[in-house]
Design goal:
By secondary structure, the chain is α/β, with parallel strands linked by helices. Helix content is 41%, strand content 23%. The longest helix has 21 residues. It has two domains: 157 residues, Rossmann fold (3-Layer(aba) Sandwich); 45 residues. A seven-stranded mixed β-sheet has the order 3-2-1-4-5-7-6, with helices on both faces. Helix 7 runs antiparallel to helix 8.
Length: 220
C-alpha cells in the first residue's frame, strides 16, 4: 500500500468514506491510490495539467493494479471533471490564490453535495476569504507541521451561508484554539511586516488596522 507523508495524510483524513474522489494536481497520484487501496474511495480521478506528472501518476496507478478504479485526466484544474463523477475534491500543494482560481473557473463547485479538501502551501488567507464570502462553510481545519513550515488543510462545503468578512478567521483560521496557536503567531508576525511596509508608504490607517489584527491573533 502507498504510504503518505504527513501533509497528504492530513488531506486523506478529511476525505469521506465511500466518496468518489477527484485529486486535482495529482502529481504522482499517491493520494488517490492510497485512498482506493485503503477502501475509503471506490474510485477516483487523478488529474494534472502537466503531461510529465500525469505520466508519473500513470506509473503509480499501474503498479498498484488500479487502472480500472482510477481514471487519469490531463487538463487544467476542474475542467477535466464533471460534477456527476465525484463527491469529494482534493486540491493540495498549491498556493491559496491558485486554488481560488481553480475553484472560480467552474460553476458547479457551488453544489452542497460536494466536499472540498484544500491544502494551500501559501496565502491560505486568500483561500479562506474567497470561501467564506462565496457561500462556503469551513467545517474543519487542521495544521500540519513539517520542519519549520506550517501548512493548513481544510474541508469546506457549500451551504449558501451569508458572506463573512471576519478578518480574525480569515487570517487566524478555523483551527481549535490550541492547535492553531503557532499558526496565528506566524500570521501575526506576517501582518506586522505588512504594517511596516504601509507605514513606510504613508498609509497609517491601514497599518493601524493590521497592527490591531496582529494583536488580536496573538491574544487568541
Amino acid at each position: 500500500m502507498i504510504t503518505l507523508d504527513k501533509r497528504l495524510s492530513a488531506v486523506a483524513a478529511l476525505v469521506r468514506q465511500g466518496s468518489r474522489l477527484a485529486d486535482i494536481g495529482t502529481d504522482h497520484a499517491y493520494l488517490p491510490v492510497h485512498l482506493v487501496q485503503a477502501g475509503v474511495c471506490p474510485s477516483a480521478i487523478a488529474s494534472d495539467i502537466g503531461a510529465g506528472p500525469l505520466e508519473a501518476a500513470r506509473h503509480t496507478v499501474t503498479a498498484a493494479g488500479l487502472t480500472s478504479e482510477i481514471a487519469l485526466r490531463l487538463g487544467d484544474g476542474l475542467a477535466t471533471v464533471s460534477v456527476q463523477e465525484v463527491d469529494d475534491i482534493a486540491i493540495a500543494g498549491m498556493g491559496g490564490e491558485t486554488i481560488v482560481a481553480i475553484l472560480k473557473a467552474v460553476s458547479y463547485i457551488q453544489d452542497p453535495r460536494l466536499r472540498l479538501i484544500l491544502q494551500p502551501m501559501t496565502r491560505a488567507e486568500d483561500l479562506r476569504r474567497w470561501l467564506i464570502t462565496h457561500g462556503f462553510s469551513i467545517i474543519e481545519e487542521h495544521l500540519i507541521t513539517k520542519g519549520r513550515h506550517l501548512y493548513p488543510v481544510l474541508a469546506a462545503e457549500y451551504t449558501a451561508a451569508a458572506p463573512c468578512e471576519d478578518e480574525v478567521l480569515i487570517y487566524g483560521g478555523f483551527f481549535s484554539p490550541e492547535e492553531g496557536r503557532p499558526y496565528r503567531r506566524m500570521m501575526a508576525e506576517h501582518l506586522l511586516r505588512r504594517a511596516a511596509g504601509l507605514i513606510h508608504s504613508g498609509d497609517l490607517v491601514g497599518a493601524a488596522r493590521l497592527i490591531d489584527l496582529s494583536e488580536l491573533l496573538r491574544r487568541m
